[in-house]
Specification:
By secondary structure, the chain is mainly α. It contains eight helices and no strands.
Length: 205
């Protein structure tokens, strides 16, 4: 349970920080309404699902211990780098810079979301990093982790589409974004350090 809470928290906090997917959802919601924007949400979640399945199944199939250790070391380092990036980030939401878009169909929005998610290499690296932290667990547990992460991505993105369908809502989020970024950054640094330290302790012990 402790491992699940740590991984779930790292995943969700990273999900909170606005990126390309976030602004794609916001733009679709403001132009087409949240129901059409849900196509973007499902597309993004499906892309995340592909990376989750690939990362978790790949790590679970590796039986060569040195390679597993190397993946865990690189994964922990990646999370530390992402966390430090968040801590140094001055990310703001400039509502005037969000491009306006014409209303589109649900299926077109789905395609846009899927392409956005699949073409973001950080998604693949992030899930590989998380998978390396739990790669020794059973296949059933990994499947539950993956299902949870896919569901969280989908639910959160639909929530974003519903809530952020207006520029005033985006402006309110901008005021709390520095706090969210700092908390997420600190947690990811601690989580990544924990992975590296546990690996070092295992070898030293």
């Amino acid at each position: 349970m402790e491992q699940f809470l740590a991984v779930a928290a790292a995943h969700f906090l990273a999900l909170l920080i606005p990126g390309v997917d976030f602004f794609l959802i916001a733009r679709a919601s403001m132009s087409s309404g949240w129901r059409n924007a849900s196509g973007v949400c499902l597309g993004i979640a499906a892309a995340n699902g592909v990376f989750i399945a690939a990362a978790f199944s790949g790590v679970s199939l590796i039986s060569y211990a040195p390679l597993q250790n190397a993946i865990q070391l690189v994964g922990g380092g990646f999370l530390i780098v992402i966390g430090l990036t968040f801590l140094r980030s001055r990310t703001r939401i400039d509502v005037d810079r969000i491009p306006r878009a014409q209303a589109t169909t649900w299926m077109r929005n789905f395609g846009l979301g899927l392409a956005s998610g699949l073409l973001n290499p950080k998604n693949a690296l992030f899930y590989l990093s998380l998978a390396s932290a739990i790669g020794t667990t059973s296949s059933v547990t990994l499947a539950l982790y993956g299902t949870w992460m896919f569901s969280v991505v989908l639910v959160w993105d639909v929530f974003v589409a519903v809530v952020l369908g207006s520029r005033s809502a985006l402006a309110r989020l901008d005021r709390v974004l520095p706090w969210l970024t700092g908390i997420a950054g600190a947690f990811l640094v601690l989580f990544g350090c924990g992975m590296v330290i546990s690996l070092a302790a295992h070898h030293l012990g």
